[in-house]
Design a protein that fits this description.
oxidoreductase activity, acting on paired donors, with incorporation or reduction of molecular oxygen; alpha+beta; Jelly Rolls; oxidoreductase; Plant_2OG-oxidoreductases; 8-stranded mixed sheet; iron; 10 helices
């Protein structure tokens, strides 16, 4: 712990679980079994983990970071071409302050949000952006789907169970690129309010500038600092489907570094038409009651957007009091 009470980089690496993706996909049967066990423990105890040896080329990630930087450095008029407001708009570009707490503290963020599966969408500029992003999301989607198989096994199901039940072949995938300008560009508090993500798992890659924090036991803990690693976060529909066993991870962004911060964020969820509730295999009469009402995924997205404006959460609508 540093002198000002903030988590240090070494403390983060020692605390947050680290999962070796290569053991899940190409290791021996014993390695695979151990990786599944570790994923289950990380999802239940922490709600997040760092993923190493994931196979997404560092060169591809760096090219995506450079292209994202080029996009956000276009003129305001150029970026306004991609301005949109609906949660299911295929391309949404926006910038502004977001409310952090009832004291009306505000943080600045710019973002580009793309629906990339089952249909791929991307701005036509800068030149080459679409082709690069298409390759990147294919790679990250493959990683996410293998992780879901591991999660499925960790819950005691066969590897393909969650894919079948949630129609993941037609699953909804986003690429959200968050841009927090440097202090030289824009001297204002930068970050993103505490929240959880929709979907099953979120993959996040940062450009080396820290800022991601997760809530654990009532305290904010810095997440990141592991070279060439994805931050993986449990999301709302994993909590719903697991009937509360794997909690959705509350996280936020607080950028104290004066450099610009860029994150590539991939929420991965069911198909928009899928009605998601607790797995029937995890509900058993009076012993294991359902803790969430079923809701169509697309309706949850709309509900979440409206409730966030009111300072609430979509869980408020579907959670069943115990």
């Amino acid at each position: 712990m540093s002198s000002n009470g903030e988590p240090t980089c070494c403390e983060v690496q020692d605390s947050i679980p680290i999962i070796d993706y290569s053991l899940l996909t190409s290791g021996s049967a014993n390695d695979h079994s151990k990786a599944v066990q570790d994923i289950g423990k990380a999802c239940e105890d922490w709600g997040c983990f760092m993923l190493v040896n994931h196979g997404v080329p560092e060169t591809l990630i760096q090219e995506m970071m450079d292209m994202s930087d080029a996009f956000f450095n276009m003129t305001i008029d150029e970026k306004l071409e991609f301005e949109a407001h609906g949660v299911l708009d295929p391309i949404r570009c926006s910038a502004g302050l977001n409310l952090v707490n009832p004291n009306k503290d505000m943080l600045w963020r710019e973002y580009l949000r793309l629906i990339v599966h089952p249909d791929f969408n991307c701005p036509h500029k800068p030149s080459g952006f679409s082709e690069l992003a298409s390759e990147y999301v294919k790679r990250t989607r493959a990683v996410a789907m293998e992780l879901v198989k591991g999660v499925s096994e960790s819950l005691g199901f066969e590897a393909s169970y969650m894919n079948r039940e949630l129609n993941l072949d037609a699953g909804f995938q986003l690429l959200a690129i968050n841009y927090y300008p440097s202090h030289m560009e824009f001297d204002v508090s930068r970050g993103l309010m505490p929240h959880t993500d929709h979907g099953l798992l979120t993959l996040l890659y940062e450009n080396g500038v820290p800022g991601l924090e997760v809530l654990r036991d009532g305290k904010w803990v810095g997440m990141g600092g592991v070279p060439n690693a994805f931050s993986i976060l449990n999301s709302d529909h994993l909590e719903i489907f697991s009937n509360g066993k794997y909690k959705s991870k509350v996280h936020r962004t607080v950028v104290k570094d004066k450099r610009r911060r860029i994150t590539l964020v991939n929420p991965n969820g069911p198909s928009l038409d899928t009605i998601v509730g607790p797995s029937s295999r995890l509900v058993d009469g009076e012993k294991r009651l359902p803790r969430y009402h079923p809701m169509k995924y697309s309706e949850y997205l709309e509900c979440q957007t409206e409730l966030i404006k009111a300072g609430k959460h979509a869980f408020d609508e579907i959670r069943i009091p115990i």
